[in-house]
Predict the structure of DNA-directed RNA polymerase.
Amino acid sequence: MYNDFFNTSTRTDKLNYRSLAIKIASPEKILSWSRGEVKKAETINYRTFRPERDGLFCERIFGPTKDWECYCGKYKRIKNRGIICDRCGVEVTES
């Protein structure tokens, strides 16, 4: 059974590619991907088990922990996607 899984002749989702190009991202490109700064060493609040603001798991920097919901709970549905909450500053998106 293990060998059948990796046998490419029996797989139905085979795709044909002519080539694949991989290159190292430049420092400018990496900076364009970033959009926040971790300012505190805290991770998670021990009472609420929620990420600390400006910490290593901050939702403003890394996105929400729950799909389509901001940190404070003002926006909770997919209809609000792309909105940045004016209370907590978290963008409503997939986690």
